[in-house]
Amino acid sequence: GQTLAARCRPVSHIVFLKTHKTGGSSVVNVLSRYGESRQLRFALPQRYQFRYPEPFRAESVRGFRPGETFDIICHHMRFSPTEVQRVMPNDSFYFSIVRDPGTQGASAFSYFRAAAAAFRRAPSLDAFLAAPRRFFGPGGRGAGLARNPQWFDFGLPEPAAAAEVPALLARLERRFPLVLLAERFDESLVLLRHRLCWPRAAVDVFAHNTRGGAAAPTAAQRRRLRAWNALDWALYSHFNRSFWRHVQRFGAARLQEEAAELRRRRRRLQERCLRGAGPVPAAAIAEPRLRPFQPPGAEHAVLGFALRPGLPPAERRRCGRMALPELPYTDLLARRQFGNGNGTEWDDF
């Protein structure tokens, strides 16, 4: 609101560490729309990720020149602070998102069946969890996705002893003053909006990359996933505690009120923008660029959004940007930034 704007200055230098299967694609949509609407410069990968799973290197940024910085970086990387500092201003705001490995692990197993050798070899999640070491090798393809993927994404070292973990996480929190929780996504967006001093509409977002027909993991599966991903569980537990400290400082009642308002606005936007007022299978999406990427071998199809026909041009553009999956949005940002069209060909949406 206006009072927020009067008290602070909008943040436009942003480092978002996008972790895997945590709701990060929805956050990237928020950042893409904000940055595009304000002509901010994105540090973009050559393709869609920064040479993941290699640690991030400044040279992997498209158009990188030593000494030049960008405004926003938000695509998949394995975090390396010194390298990120080579491409981002010193006053950048760092944030990320984490998810309980009890559910993140099940989602990753389904999504990365082809990308992670350990998951591909296992006939089912239960078979994998019964004897994960039978299928997992630390040097195997996609190993960073199959065990402690969030710890891996943060670029943290393998601790020599459990006693080292708290100090590593305390240091990480100094770098990332806000870490969102996937399980409290709307509350997270409210906290983020206030930290960034952005208008309410900036964090309106649809839930990207949801899976059709995916059953929630059982209590036993969740327990085993947390045990297998013990470092992720430590990381998640740490940032869960810090999240609730943020909530306390913000005011729990005020946060609930703003999160409820965010959900009301989302419902209205979904009804206004989307056929079916929510996510639909890719086959039901006529517009090719609105169809989300389907990972090979995934157990469940990724859902996307189809726009309602007959929207007025300005609304169609706004709805289209909110519905646009990450990969085509990345292409659009690259075109706007590096030529080959300025992105106006997308304005018809």
TrEMBL record:
Gene3D superfamilies linked to this entry: P-loop containing nucleotide triphosphate hydrolases (3.40.50.300)
Provide this UniProt record's keywords sorted from A to Z.
Answer: Glycoprotein, Golgi apparatus, Membrane, Signal-anchor, Transferase, Transmembrane, Transmembrane helix
Signal peptide start-end: none
Entry's Gene Ontology molecular function annotations: galactosylceramide sulfotransferase activity
InterPro entries registered for this protein in UniProt: Gal-3-0_sulfotransfrase (IPR009729), P-loop_NTPase (IPR027417)
Which topology term describes how it sits in the membrane? Answer: Single-pass type II membrane protein
Cell location:
Golgi apparatus membrane
* Cellular component terms (Gene Ontology): Golgi membrane
Question: GO biological process annotations for this chain's record?
Answer: glycolipid biosynthetic process
Predominant place of localization: Golgi
Question: Which family is this sequence assigned to?
Answer: Belongs to the galactose-3-O-sulfotransferase family.
Q: Per its record, how is this protein called by name?
A: Galactose-3-O-sulfotransferase 4
Q: Which organism is it from?
A: Taeniopygia guttata (Zebra finch)
